[in-house]
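Protocol step 4 of 5: obtain the predicted structure for the target chain.
Materials: sequence only (see below). No template structures provided, no constraints applied. The aim of this step is simply to have a reference model before the mutagenesis design in step 5. Sequence pasted as it appears in the construct record:
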Amino acid sequence: MANDSDYGLASSVWSTDVSRAMSIASRLRYGCTWVNTHFMLASEMPHGGLKQSGYGKDMSLFAIEDYTVVRHVMVKM
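Step 4 output (structure tokens):
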């Protein structure tokens, strides 16, 4: 039910059982998921949404992926 949305910017999981919270967080499809907190950001981590909540991961090394295309070219001579 939590993933049944057109949007996926951010989510939070609140629980006294951290193991269970991490299990739930791993199944959520959001750009950022916090456990037992909300809107705590680290500058070295990617920021951005999924689905219709945006494209890309600005302000991190992951943002470079938006400007590159990985290709494989093999030549046999």
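Step 4 remarks: The first strand starts at residue 7 and ends at 8. The longest helix spans residues 18-27.
Proceed to step 5.
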